[in-house]
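Title: Comparing notes on inverse folding

I've been comparing how different people in this forum approach sequence design from structure. To keep things fair, I'm posting one structure and asking everyone to reply with a full sequence. Here's the target:
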């Protein structure tokens, strides 16, 4: 984020008169900051090479920090994976819930329903059969759940 802001400020500074002392100070500070970033990058590469050469044995305190960092990173990756799986499961459940809703009246319909139990409209996709029902449709013999006003198999109104 700060690199974006730095880029914007550098762009604005480029529009200002270059003989202004404040602009000169800003430009010099920006140049020093860029050199410091490059220096940190080179030191990081050097440190990584030294670490890879002897496995960190020359610097046990740094090795301990890196080991702890690696463990924390692995734990964070696990939390990220779990959060992504939770999100996917939630989205799947929401999609299933939406698929059971009647496109005409919005009523929720259980699995196995071909016609809406509230308004009798044909549902977009037939759903898997619901396991428990208490009554049977006199027209087609489909099991009817308690409180269901229309047959989920043929759409007949249940008296």
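Reply #1:
Here's my take.
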């Amino acid at each position: 984020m700060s690199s974006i802001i730095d880029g914007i400020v550098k762009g604005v500074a480029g529009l200002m008169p270059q003989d202004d002392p404040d602009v000169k100070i800003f430009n010099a500070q920006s140049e020093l900051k860029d050199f410091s970033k490059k220096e940190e990058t080179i030191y990081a590469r050097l440190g990584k090479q030294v670490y890879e050469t002897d496995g960190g044995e020359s610097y046990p305190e740094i090795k301990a920090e890196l080991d702890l960092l690696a463990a924390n990173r692995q734990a964070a990756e696990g939390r990220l994976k779990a959060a992504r799986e939770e999100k996917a499961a939630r989205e799947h459940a929401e999609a299933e819930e939406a698929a059971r809703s009647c496109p005409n009246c919005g009523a929720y319909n259980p699995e196995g329903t071909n016609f809406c139990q509230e308004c009798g409209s044909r549902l977009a996709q037939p759903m898997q059969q619901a396991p428990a029902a208490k009554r049977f449709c006199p027209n087609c013999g489909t099991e009817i759940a308690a409180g269901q006003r229309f047959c989920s198999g043929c759409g007949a109104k249940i008296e």
